[in-house]
Structure formats: C-alpha cells, structure tokens
What we know:
Blueprint lengths: L3 H22 L6 E7 L7 H20 L3 E6 L3 H4 L9 H17 L9 E7 L9 E3 L5 E5 L5 H9 L12 E2 L11 E2 L5 H12 L3
Parallel strand pairs: 1-2, 1-3, 3-5, 6-7
Antiparallel strand pairs: 4-5
The protein binds zinc ion.
Amino acid sequence: MKRIPPLRYIATSILVGLSLAASQAFAGLQPLQIRIFVHQDVKESVEYIDYNYMSHWAKAMKNISGRDVTFEYITEANAITTMNYKNDNLEVPVEELKTHYLQYDFAHPVEGDEFLQKGLLLTRYSINDDVGGVAYDYGKVGIASLVSYSFPAHELGHLFGATHENSKAGWCDTYMVPRRNSFKAQCYGFSEANERVIGERLDNRP
Ligand SMILES: [Zn+2]
C-alpha cells in the first residue's frame, strides 16, 4: 500500500509531459496521428514493426506534407486486438473495426484535427486468400496484414486518398499498386500522382 502515492505521482508527471509535447507539436502543422492496433496473433515486436513497416511510410508522408507522423502502438484493446478479421466479405471486418475504433476513440480522445487521426489494425494473416488488407478511400480505419512490408503503407494510403488508378509500376512498384508481386522491387513511396492527391488534401488541414 505504501507504494501507491509514488506511483500516482509518476503517472501524473507522464501525463503532463505528454500534453506539453502535444501543444508544442501543434505550434506548427499538426502531425498525422496514427493509432496502430497490433493483433494478438502478430509475432513481431513493436520495434520491428515500426522500423520495417511504418518508418518508410512516415518518411514519405513527411516529404509530401511537411508533417510529422506519430504512431501510437496499442497491443491490448480487446475488442480490436482479438477480433476475427478473416472474411470473404471485406465489409464485415472493416465495419466491425470501425465500430470498435469509434468506441475506443471516445474512451481515449486525443487533441487535434480529426482528418489527421486514423486507426490501423495490423494482422499476421491475410483477410482471405486474395486480400492482404482493406480500407475505404478517406476512411477512418483500415486493416493490413504483415505479409508484405508495403501493406500497411498501402492501406494508410487509401485513408489519405491515394488510389490504385494513380499508382505506378515501373522498375519498382509504388505503394498503391493493387497486386503485390513479390518478385518485383518495392519503391517504398507513392507515385507522383498519388503524392499530389494526398498533398492537396492535407494542405487544407491545420
Ligand atoms: Zn488498395
């Protein structure tokens, strides 16, 4: 029992530190705030995921928009991180995720512009035999399996308005090429056309 007061004090100071950092970040362009839910079936560590799957996307988005990208990794949000995402009908898991996400967001609100805030569920397996991820154009949430290093970037691309039609397959495939060919190189970036679409939409935000 004696340990409770010091623990509380630590918790309070962490919260203060976070809110100060947030207001400092908002002095300029607001960052893209991405909540990454890591499904319980994922074996990779958060550090591995951040380095191999997310950092190249953050760099691409910073180049396009001038904004920082913050990732909040969440490994225990039961309704989300344990949900059954496998389905032949893609609308079923993405709608279920959206419902749970809105509840989570209501319980854990964050400061900032809502368009810049998205949620992504990372999974070990594909959604079905054909599909490695799903998201609506300009949607709030998406699902991406870790089968390919570019899947999370692809689904986040949809959430910020990038399209398959604007993708470019050259000596390497840009993020939004709809079918990942594992024999081809990945560019780890968007096509110029998708960069324009993403950039124009983000220019209007705070
Ligand atoms: Zn797609």
